[in-house]
Amino acid sequence: MLCVTRAVQGIGGAGIAPSVMMAISDLVTLRERGKYQSMVALCWATGSMAGPVVGGVLADTNWRWIFFINLPIGVLAFLLLIAFWRIPNTDTSPEPWQKQLSRIDFVGAFTFIASVVCFLLATQWGGVRYSWSSPIVIALFVIALVFLILTIIVSWKLSSEPMLELDMFYDRARSALYIAVVAIASAMFANIFYLPIYFQVANGDTPVIAGAEMLSFLVPVDLVSVISGFIVSITGHYKIMFLIGTACIAIGGGLQTMLTIDSGRAAQVCYQVVSGAGIGFCIQNLFVAAQASAPQNRVMSAIALVSFFEYFGFACGIAMGGAIFNNTLQHYLHNTTTLSMSQIKEAQRNPDMLKNIQDPNLHRMVASAFASALQRTFLALVVCGCIAFICSLFLHWKIPPTSDDDDDSVNQQDRNSASTNDNSNTRQRHHVDEEQQLSVSEYNHAFG
Hints:
Blueprint: H1 2-27, H2 30-61, H3 65-68, H4 70-84, H5 97-102, H6 106-125, H7 135-158, H8 172-202, H9 207-213, H10 215-235, H11 239-256, H12 265-283, H13 285-293, H14 299-336, H15 341-349, H16 360-392, H17 403-447
């Protein structure tokens, strides 16, 4: 029941981010979109900073409210949309919903989702529930590959409007961007998911305090995201943001690999700030880069693809981190402690079990095993940052001029031309009036 209802919630949530970006692309020019997306990032910032704290409080009291809290927020957002959202008028009438529904590539969507799910299950279960050489894990990888090939065949040969538009990958800059999206999103969610575990283990924090300590990561993400969006709106240059941001992701991940159970709070905060700032330079500008590199008639497809690869990266970040963390933790606990296999499994599921260990020496050994496993997990962030940095080298430097911007320029020139013509006509009228006054004066002098 929980999995099904979470899937329904995910379907609704997955459509919100691309819908917001599509609405912005319809309302403002490409050059101005970074500024408005920064405003969206500011709203997201408020939620992301409050979320870990509120989630920690709810986890300590009644976990069911983690789901109930979505009801009043969703109803409020729904009412605000009904009250204030006005769709711009267009010359064309919308298609009937039956025709719109028939255009959806259900076969391609099914095969691709099946491929992603099998891949994530294989990475989650490998080395934890089953060995990497087990038939189940191998079968999942094979099935994932088969479904991916079927998706390509459906998109290439069978579907008139495929979910995965292959021609969007023909451009080098766009292909590099999509790879960078997965790497950046993976690094972001791996941090969000595994940093609280470090705080619980190294500092002995409760979930509430661990969520609050995540602000050292989340605040730079949000603050830098807003600032970089405004800079891109003013200058039009977005590639430099990716180069700086991806370098910071790699450096921040490298610094986090040095975190131990004895690391001070200053080091914990500073390392998070570097990683968070790196994510902030990139996360909102992903949509700007996608729209800047796509033809005008394919902007919506570009936004949808970035949103998809972003969510895919979120899932990969957790799955990738989980595979590294669980396998490494199991190895260290098995080789350095006297814990039974059932206790090791419990430690993998619940880091709070450390509080139940009374022996201080065993407690320190288990905590050190957690820290070592997290160091390996954070090493994956270095890899993600380096991959994203290399991909960023293939992006365009700045936003190209668009028809919207050209129209604004033409309109301004027309206004300037009209103003010049008005001034010229005014001077001509004054000149004629002066000539007429002079003629009347000469006539009166001659015949007065």
